[in-house]
Design a protein that fits this description.
Structural class: alpha/beta
Strand content: 15-25%
Keywords: Membrane, Transmembrane, Transmembrane helix
Number of domains: 2
Number of strands: 14
CATH architecture of the largest domain: 3-Layer(aba) Sandwich
Largest sheet: 6 strands, mixed
Helix content: 40-55%
Number of helices: 11
Protein name: Aerotolerance regulator BatA
Oligomer: single chain
InterPro entries: UPF0353/GerABKA_families, vWA_BatA_type, VWF_A, vWFA_dom_sf
Mean pLDDT: 80
CATH class of the largest domain: Alpha Beta
Strand order of the largest sheet: 9-8-5-10-11-12
Organism: Aliivibrio sifiae
Shape: rod-shaped
Length: about 350
């Protein structure tokens, strides 16, 4: 039962409201007949006491204010038993589904202009763009489908570094992605180190989550799923940690890695794609491996990842509740304190007048 901003948790107590009236009708006051004592000086006694006889039982009669106090007390008691609760303003609680770390290769080969721009086919002309620019365009569409996920960004070349820690702000994430440029992390491809850094960031995020749950005493929060999407266009060159070893650690830490191999597989040298390593990394961590030699295949790879990692976003609306049942009980106590205090003062005044 709800009345605007007020809710009664136990409304069935309202059925008790007419109980005093029912008792008054069904169980009247006790009456009895007894033989009267004959007093010869009865008239004198009546005048001295200032009390006049009446037929029937002699009953004390409550004054109007006493009756009002009794009625109000009963109503307040029943109201308190219903446990009235005030509803606060609606609050929205958002539950983020998973953490997605996007790992992007910024080695020199990402400057190769062998991909087609998004608007080229519609305009009738073919505009070649670099692999990095194609990646930015595809990722801009990909993040729109990740509502509820926290996104992070790691860039790697000669070394790996965190460009964006986990955030739910997609606009900020895209801005930081667009600020990246080829070779800003070096010319080579340290794939294993990049995967290792991603695992470290996931671990730090889990520790922060755990400490936050302890502070808020909220043990019902489920841990977020951990997903890494690694895009590279070359072979690992000189990582401190081998990609396969990093993938095994990721599997132990419940981190799934989806690998996207970008570029021409016929390339030789350091820029050559080692599909064997890429497939083994994805398989060892429970992820999938994809190969994209053009923009369409790159989009299809991210779409497939989106299907493999569906949204886990949940949004629930609730209204905080505050019980006010103690206030009617406090009011009853105050009323009776006032009534007893008033009756005591009145009795003292009358006794003082008699003595005078």
């Amino acid at each position: 039962m709800q009345f605007n901003q007020l809710e009664l948790a136990n409304p069935y107590w309202l059925w008790m409201l007419p109980l005093p009236i029912i008792i008054y009708w069904l169980i009247p006051a006790y009456r009895t007949r007894q033989s009267a004592i004959k007093v010869p000086f009865f008239d004198v006694l009546v005048k001295a006491l200032d009390e006049y006889p009446s037929e029937g039982a002699s009953q004390l009669q409550a004054s109007y204010w006493q009756k009002a106090f009794l009625i109000m007390s009963w109503c307040l008691l029943i109201f308190a038993l219903t446990k009235p609760t005030i509803l606060g303003e609606p609050q929205t609680r958002e539950s983020l589904g998973r953490d997605v770390m996007v790992v992007v290769d910024l080695s020199g080969s990402m400057a190769e202009q062998d991909f087609v721009s998004k608007g080229s086919s519609s305009e009738g002309s073919i505009q070649k763009i670099s692999r990095l620019e194609a990646t930015k365009e595809v990722l801009a569409d990909f993040v729109k489908t990740r509502k509820g996920d926290r996104l992070g960004l790691i860039l790697f070349g000669d070394a790996a570094f965190v460009q964006t820690p986990f955030t739910a702000d997609q606009r900020v994430w895209l801005e930081l992605l667009n600020q990246t440029d080829v070779a800003m992390a070096g010319q080579s491809t340290h794939l294993g180190d990049a995967i290792g850094l991603a695992i470290k960031v996931f671990e730090q995020s889990s520790k922060e989550e755990t400490s936050s749950e302890v502070d808020t005493k909220d043990s019902n929060v489920k841990p977020r799923e951990k997903v890494a999407i690694v895009l590279t266009d070359g072979n690992d060159t000189g990582s401190y940690v081998e990609p396969i070893d990093a993938a095994k650690v990721a599997a132990a830490k419940n981190v799934r890695i989806h690998m996207i191999a970008m570029g021409d597989p016929r390339t030789v040298g350091e820029q050559a794609l080692d599909m064997n390593v890429i497939n083994r990394v994805a398989e060892a961590s429970g992820g999938k491996a994809f190969q994209a030699i053009n923009r369409d295949e790159l989009e299809q790879a991210y779409e497939a990842i989106g299907e493999l990692e569906p949204q886990l976003y949940e949004s629930t609306t609730y209204r905080p509740k505050q019980s006010i049942h103690q206030y009617p009980m406090m009011l009853i106590v105050m009323m009776y304190l006032f009534a007893f205090g008033f009756a005591t003062i009145k009795r003292h005044v009358k006794s003082g007048e008699k003595h005078v």
